[in-house]
Every structure is written in C-alpha cells, then in structure tokens.
C-alpha cells in the first residue's frame, strides 16, 4: 500500500520561551547581579545544563550589561561606548537570553509576566513565563522629586544612552554659545548644573568639565573661564564613602578649577531653563544633570514578595528572600543584612562592590540548594567594606582603601587599576587599556555625534516624509534641552514629596 503524502507541513515552531523538562532558573535583570549570577551558575551547573536537568533563563531589557563606573569616561570620550558594555549572549553562552521587561511576578504560582520586543511589535499582550527558582535583580532607577521642570528639562546619568547623550549635549551647547549673538543664550548654554554629590554626580562633573575645558581651545571665542559648572548637594559634604577628610579635599580640588560647589542646597525648579536653588539664587541654565540617588526598580512593587519600608526585597544573609522558598535576590533591589558590620541591624550598601561579591555566594547557594543541601547549611554573605575610590577628572582622584588615604594622581591611578581589574571579560579589559594608552599618546576626542540620536532625520527630510519616529528635521538638536519646548524622557514617575534625595551614587570601591 502506498502511504498517503503528508500534507500537514512542517511542525510549528515551539513557543518563544518554551521550557525544558529540567529545573528552570529565571534571572530577572542583566545588570551586575543578574549577569554575574548567571555567569557563575552556568559554570557551576555545567553538567546539569548539558544533561537537560537545569536551564538558566535571563530576561533583560538590554542585550548587554553596562559597567557603570566607566560611564563618566565614556561621556568624556576616554573610552568608546561599545567598550563600556558587555554583550550578554557572548558571555552567557549556556544561558537563554530574552530581551524584554518583566512587568509582574506571582511567585506563589511561579509565574512572571513579560513584555518582549516581539510582543510589542505584534501588539500582543504580555506573555507568561514559568520557573522553578527565581533570581530577582532588576537593579534600581533614578530617584527623583516632583521638582518643576525636572522631568522636562533634566537628564540622569545612570545609563550609557544618558552618558553619550549628555556628552553630545555639552558639546552642542558650546557650539550654540560660539555662534549666538545673544549674551543671555550664550550664558545659559555655558552653564552646567549637576545635582547630587555622590559618585555619579562628582565623577560625571569632573570628567565632563575636563573635556569641555580642553575642547574650548578649539573655539575662537570661548575660553575655559567662560564655562560655569555648579555642583548642588543637599547635605554638608560630598563623596561620603571616601570619608570626611577626602570629601573636603575633593571640594577644594573642584573649587580650584572654578567649579561652584554649593552644599546644603537643593534644586527647587528648572522650568524654562531657569535654575532656582534653595539658597535664593536664580540663573539661566540649559543643562541640568540629576544624579541625586537611586531607588529600587518599580517591578518590586508588582510582586508578591515581602518588601521593606524603602521598597527593597527583605532578604537573609544567605541571599534568600526572607520567608519565601525558591526566591533569591542581591544588589540594589535587596535589603541584605551586613553581618560583617559591628552596627546592629546594619545592611549592605547598594553599591557594585557588594553586588558583585554577593553573586558568588548567591550562585553557590542556588547550586547547592538544587543539589539537596538544606537551607540552614548554605553560606552567608559577609564582606568587610574595603573602601572606595573616585575620579575627579583626568589625573585627579580621591581614595580611602584599607584605611589608607590617597589623593591626586595616585588615587586616580588606583581608580583606573581597580576598575580595569573589575570590568568583565579579557576582551573588554584589553580594549579599555588600549584606549587609555592611545588617549595618552594622542589628543582628546572632541567630536559630538548628536545626529546618531536621530538617524532617520536627514533621510526623512530629503524624502519629504516629515520627521521620523523619535526624530526631527534638525539632527543636532539636543534631546534634553530642546529648542522648541520641553521633552519628556522615558523614565519612572517622580517620587512623592516625602522622599529625600540621595547623594551616595550606586557604587563604591
């Protein structure tokens, strides 16, 4: 008998996040904690993954991990933006990577709701992802206040996009100042306000002031003294992690460069490019950079996991979510007891030094738990803080490490050596080191690539199609201080008035 032809066609593709029969570990977030935990897990569970007994699924909004301590140097042009990030798919070759956003977690049912690039393109709703073990590490977002004009006219300094956008914006303001006939526009264009005296604010200000001062030599009518840099800090000190003495030195160093450091001062408004401070001063400024602290990612509020009063996950020293089985957390999103501290009730600071070290214990405990080790026999995280380093610009820095205090060039060199040793992969270490070497041999890069932010603008104008999505006919118009009205960036809503601005930044050491 002749067998009838099969007209059914090829079998349909499996669902995009179909799971294997093994234990699925869902890692939410591709930042420090997410990437390092997944990296360590794929090594520890190599045999289980090969046998199909375990699966690591990471859901991350970006296909890369950003090494945030290098953002100031990327903004200043000392490091290529591509070398500040690590591609997740390359380094996590035994994990499944899905680019998307987790919008909710119902741990009681072991499910997460996920919006992916495909669901947005298709106009479909969020998909449901199941798991067995949960590692929740969405990190943090900028902590803002309901200050008039902040959402429309300011920019943060937490992502690579913000860092490069700010660089382009600063150079564009110098172009505006060089070509305008209006003294008021010139003064506003050359005034740069940074709010927040933690790592992010001080390092970004130091690097960009260095870059702008160098760039001014190529303008026929702009001198370094024409640029006005203002650091606004709500407390009575900056860089608290490096100690009071080194913090005072940092203030003296910044002021020696004619940077106006205003302590115990707050930004009250920046509407219509007019900065209003709590000390009564009021002046035009086309650049306001907000670096006044961070808060836990909004995702945490959309879970059924226990949170503390600051919105972080309540965790144990073993990095389990307190009172919840099969849920783990670390980093900015987790309130982890600091058992190495002599202070009762102390918690680990939300910085990269703790986050990266926590992942070693976290991955080890997850692997041990899957292999049957009881919870009370898992390792506890204990790390005595070794200190902090901060850059104040090229060849300038402060450090307080193992009780030793350094300043100037030695501190700056230690800052570079430390972070070169910490940036992931030999590939990135080599590329960063090569760029530093070339930067020492040749002149600093001063080019602005603002047109990259609107890549379709020129073509759309030539084709007569009008502005493209997210673009304009003016490729060089800055995205943060627009010429024709406010721009509302994509970010989280402001905190409530009761919130207080942070000033510690998000990293140490």
From TrEMBL:
Domain FAD/NAD(P)-binding: 24-353
Keyword set includes Flavoprotein: yes
Span list, region Disordered: 1-20, 460-509
Pfam families listed in its UniProt record: Pyr_redox_2
Alphabetic keyword roster: FAD, Flavoprotein, NAD, Oxidoreductase
Record-level Gene Ontology MF annotations: NADH dehydrogenase activity
Protein name according to UniProt: NAD(P)/FAD-dependent oxidoreductase
Protein family: Belongs to the NADH dehydrogenase family.
SUPFAM superfamilies associated with the record: FAD/NAD(P)-binding domain (SSF51905)
Keyword Amino-acid biosynthesis (UniProt): no
């Amino acid at each position: 008998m002749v067998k009838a032809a099969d007209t059914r066609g090829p079998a349909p593709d499996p669902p995009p996040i179909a799971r294997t029969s093994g234990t699925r570990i869902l890692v939410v977030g591709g930042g420090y904690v997410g990437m390092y935990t997944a990296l360590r897990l794929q090594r520890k569970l190599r045999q289980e993954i090969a046998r199909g007994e375990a699966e690591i699924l990471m859901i991350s909004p970006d296909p890369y991990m950003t090494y945030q301590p290098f953002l100031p140097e990327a903004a200043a042009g000392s490091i290529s933006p591509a070398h500040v990030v690590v591609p997740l798919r390359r380094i996590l070759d035994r994990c499944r990577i899905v680019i998307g956003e987790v919008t909710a977690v119902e741990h009681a049912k072991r499910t997460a709701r996920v919006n992916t690039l495909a669901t947005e393109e298709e106009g479909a709703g969020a998909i449901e992802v199941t798991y067995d073990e949960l590692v929740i590490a969405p990190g943090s977002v900028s902590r803002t206040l309901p200050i008039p004009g902040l959402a429309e006219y300011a920019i943060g300094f937490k992502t690579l996009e913000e860092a490069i956008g700010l660089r382009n914006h600063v150079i564009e303001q110098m172009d505006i100042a060089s070509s305008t006939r209006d003294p008021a526009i010139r003064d506003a264009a050359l005034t740069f306000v940074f709010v927040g005296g933690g790592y992010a604010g001080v390092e970004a200000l130091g690097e960009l002031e260095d870059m702008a001062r160098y760039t001014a030599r190529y303008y026929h009518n702009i001198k370094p003294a024409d640029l006005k840099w203002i650091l606004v800090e709500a407390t009575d000190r900056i860089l608290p992690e490096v100690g009071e003495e080194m913090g005072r030195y940092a203030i003296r160093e910044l002021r020696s460069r004619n940077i106006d450091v205003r302590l115990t001062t707050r930004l009250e408004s920046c509407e219509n490019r007019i900065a209003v401070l709590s000390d009564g001063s009021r002046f035009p400024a086309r650049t306001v950079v907000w670096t006044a602290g961070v808060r836990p990612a909004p995702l945490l509020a959309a879970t059924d996991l226990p949170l503390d009063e600051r919105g972080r996950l309540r965790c144990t020293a073993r990095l389990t979510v307190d009172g919840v089985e099969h849920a783990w957390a670390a980093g900015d999103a987790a309130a982890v007891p600091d058992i190495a501290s002599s202070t009762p009730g102390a918690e680990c600071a939300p910085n990269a030094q703790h986050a990266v070290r926590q992942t070693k214990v976290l991955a080890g405990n997850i692997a041990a738990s899957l292999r049957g080790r009881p919870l009370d026999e898992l390792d506890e995280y204990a790390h005595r803080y070794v200190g902090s380093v901060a850059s104040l610009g090229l060849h300038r820095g402060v450090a307080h490490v193992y009780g030793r205090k350094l300043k100037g060039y030695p501190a700056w060199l230690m800052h570079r050596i430390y972070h070169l040793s910490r940036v992931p992969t030999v590939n990135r270490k080599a590329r960063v080191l090569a760029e530093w070497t070339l930067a020492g041999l040749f002149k600093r890069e001063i080019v602005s690539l603002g047109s990259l932010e609107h890549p379709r603008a020129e073509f759309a104008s030539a084709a007569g199609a009008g502005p493209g999505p997210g673009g304009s006919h003016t490729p060089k118009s800055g995205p943060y201080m627009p010429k024709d009205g406010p721009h509302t960036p994509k970010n989280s809503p402001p905190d409530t008035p009761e919130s207080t601005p942070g000033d510690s930044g998000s990293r140490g050491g």
